[in-house]
Amino acid sequence: MEFIRIPAGVYAANCYIIYSEISREGIVVDPGGDAEIILGKINENKLSIKYIVLTHGHGDHIGGVIELNKSLNVPVLVHEADKELMEDANKNMSVIMSFGPLEFSPDSLLKDGDVIEFGKLEAEVIHTPGHTQGCICLKIQDHLFTGDTLFKGSIGRTDLYGGDYDTIINSLREKILPLDDNLIVLPGHGESSTIGEEKKYNPYLG
After folding, report:
1. Predicted TM-score of the model (pTM)
2. Measured between alpha carbons, how far is 119 from 28 in angstroms, rounded to an integer?
């Protein structure tokens, strides 16, 4: 597995282009903006993108979806509980963002335990509600793409629509803490970490 990280959009949400180095088939996770830069990296690396996958429905993670999808023409996947965010600019907060209101219907809805296949890789969908009702993490080999559920030293905010502090803490304890300490954490904002480091230093995982 190979990946390219692009801090995209005005909020520098981490967009990840994840692909098989053998087949060059891949997925784009959380294109929050800068679609032309994302497309440039895809073309530069001669990649065939199979899906656009969203870890959740907030505007800073979906800002580049429509423009990117016009060029790629691939399905957009999101957890079923965040479908309403995709379709409501007030709920996804794009209405107050610089690129303006953004609403669209996803092509396919995910649920906990689903497996997204591309190339010879598999992305396991782990439903981790709390930041939004439909937040997910994606486990691919020894990497965990955590969206806004888990950051280095912190967690996602829970004061926005669909957020709940007790729910995100429960998600972390039940879904994240049991994972292998060596798993590399690649969050929706900021620097990477490992599950072991977060167990040791993240105050919310204590």
Report:
1. 0.97
2. 13
Three-state DSSP state, 139: strand
Query: Is residue 91 helix, strand or coil?
Result: helix
- Tell me the Cα Rg of the chain: 16
* CA quadruple 139, 19, 186, 129: dihedral sign: negative
Helices 65-72 and 35-44, packing angle to 10 deg? 40
Each residue's pLDDT tens digit, 114-151: 999 999 999 999 999 999 999 999 999 999 999 999 99
Nearest to 32 by CA among 92, 81, 74: 92
* 73-89 pLDDT, tens digit each: 999 999 999 999 999 99
CA 82/CA 137 separation, integer angstroms: 14
Encoded tokens for 169 = 């803490």
Query: Are residues 28 and 68 in contact, defined by beta-carbon separation less than 8 angstroms?
Result: yes
Contact 81, 129 (CB under 8 A): yes
What are the φ and ψ backbone dihedral angles of 139, each rounded to 5 degrees?
-100, 120
